[in-house]
Amino acid sequence: MTATSMVKEHPLPPRSGSGGADECGDAMIAMLEDQLAAERQSRHETEAALRETRAAMIKHQQIGRMGDFRYNTRTQRVRGSLEFYKLFGFDPALGEIDLVTWTEKIHPDEHVRVVKTLFDTIAALEPIQFECRIRLGDETRCIRCEAELNHDHVGDPVYYGVLTDVTECRTGEEALRRAEAELATSLRLASMESSPVRSFTRSASRWHRLPAAPTPAGAGLLAGLTTRIAYWPRWGA
Prior knowledge:
Elements: H1 3-9, H2 18-64, E1 66-72, E2 77-80, H3 82-88, E3 97-98, H4 99-103, H5 111-123, E4 128-136, E5 139-149, E6 158-165, H6 167-193, H7 196-208, H8 216-230, H9 232-236
Antiparallel strand pairs: 1-2, 1-6, 2-3, 4-5, 5-6
Helix pairs in contact: 7-8
């Protein structure tokens, strides 16, 4: 008989108390596995919520034609969201963009003014707020920039800001101003057409066309013109 067969036929009895310890250990392992599974589930849900929030933020920026950015005042480099790069026609693969490259997009007619305002504001660590035109190929767009210094940031002073394409808004405002100006002109001309001066001019023109010997109808017209002339000061009052 081999040793193995002897063990199988005559197993050793369990040590006193060992069964309770094994059961306790199994329970502890099961509890830890449950906790680990719960933590994994919570992490998956959190990651899914973050992905959903990020996707919603990107969609909202696309709809609103706006992009967020961060500007490091020491390195003078800018990093922004996907829409930030699209607004200025940059390749998102560029990552960080130096301030000089960024400001090269500003319209030549406004470049000096905007760059001076920007650098003066940054030097004073004041909030950034300006509006300018930028050139994207043959197209001109109007961009509004707003940013504030993050005082809670540890390390280099960093501005956090938002860029918004307000081209359609400014175009609509200009169209509204033109429409208001045209309406004001039309109302002014209409008031001139109905003024006493215009009425008198028309009456005088008819009087000059009367025959030398007035007919009864012409005599009535002449009498009416005389009455209008008599009451002219009252009209002008």
